[in-house]
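To whoever is on call:

I kicked off a structure prediction for a single chain this morning and the downstream step that reads the tokens threw a length-mismatch warning. I double-checked the sequence; it's 128 residues and nothing unusual in it as far as I can see. Pasting both halves so you can look.
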Amino acid sequence: MTGASTAAVGVERQYFDHLAQGRFLIQHCSACRRHVFYPREICPHCGGDALDWVAPAGRATVYSFTTVARKPEAGGDYNVSLVDLEEGVRMMSCVVGMPPDQVRIGMAVQALIGERDGAPAVLFEEAR
């Protein structure tokens, strides 16, 4: 992710800059009133170009996941999860704070800003 965030430009760069400031923001289209993620210049729903940055609630549900197996000396196993935010967008991330084999489809999770590969990232933990 470090390479992706440092090579980002335009609205993608803005997204990573917000994360670096400790803020998780997604876009909201003022024309069709729908949320947008991954950051875009044009709304994929209606073609509008009035996209504002808004803070999502952070509540989400695990849509799907997989466990990536690694040797312990390489950091051990971890999960890659697709999560659906309440705002109607899906994002790829990971669920932290539990063994990867305990992540389940349909699990309620909450966003947090953490670090992945030396760069700020949106991660998720089980909702309390």
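Update from on-call: the warning came from a stale cache, not from the record. Cleared it. Sanity check on the structure: The chain has a mean pLDDT of 93.
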